[in-house]
Amino acid sequence: MKKIYLCFLSLVTLCLFPLVVNAASGTIRVTGSANAVVGNQVKVTVTLASSTKIGSWQMDLNYDKSYLSLVNSSAEGGGTSMASSSATGVKSKSYTFTFKVLKSGNTKVSVNSYLAYAFSDLSQLSLTSSSLSIKLMTQKELEATYSKDNNLKSLSIE
């Protein structure tokens, strides 16, 4: 009888006080200019952020090498792989990448194959990632977008 009572009490307790586990989450934002001119450079920033401290992470930058050429990177080793760990945990980490624009067209910069772990208990963070679309154009294409209204209507001095 005692076992039945304990089982019943346990079942009632679980129904009244369900276990709720909230997985830690974070975001990966890819930001930068939406337009760039062929021959010039364009900067892209990748930011990993979470409301809980992040202990370690690994991410890879993805871009079309026929449109963009990597010139500079703040990632470990100067490449496109971003992997590190923090002895004290961080709530955000940013990396900057500078690309030379090779040809006109539309391209996308994104982060793929990403993982991050919470500092407190090493649980895997649930991450969402964004991407950046960039319109690449020649100087001539850019100038064609300028206003055709170049008439001076009035000029006065006060």
Proportion of beta-strand residues: over 45%
Give the total of beta strands: 8
The low-confidence parts are none
Quote the average pLDDT: 86
Classification by helices and strands: mainly beta
Order of helices and strands: HEEEEEEEEH
Shape: elongated
- N- to C-terminal separation? 101 Å
Number of helices: 2
Q: What is the gyration radius calculated from CA atoms? A: 26 Å
Assign a percent range to the helix content. Answer: 10-25%
Largest sheet: 8 strands, mixed
Oligomeric state of this protein: single chain
Question: What layout of secondary structure does this protein have?
Answer:
Layout: H1 2-16, E1 25-32, E2 35-37, E3 41-62, E4 68-73, E5 81-101, E6 105-118, E7 126-129, E8 131-137, H2 139-144
Parallel strand pairs: 1-7, 2-8
Antiparallel strand pairs: 1-3, 3-5, 3-6, 4-5, 6-8
What does this structure look like?
With 158 residues, this protein is mainly β. It has helices at residues 2-16, 139-144; strands at residues 25-32, 35-37, 41-62, 68-73, 81-101, 105-118, 126-129, 131-137. Strands 1, 2, 3, 4, 5, 6, 7 and 8 form an 8-stranded mixed beta sheet that branches. The longest helix is centred in the first third of the chain and has 15 residues, at 2-16. It is elongated, with a radius of gyration of 26 Å.
Descriptors:
158 residues; mainly beta; eight-stranded mixed β-sheet; 8 strands; 54% strand; elongated
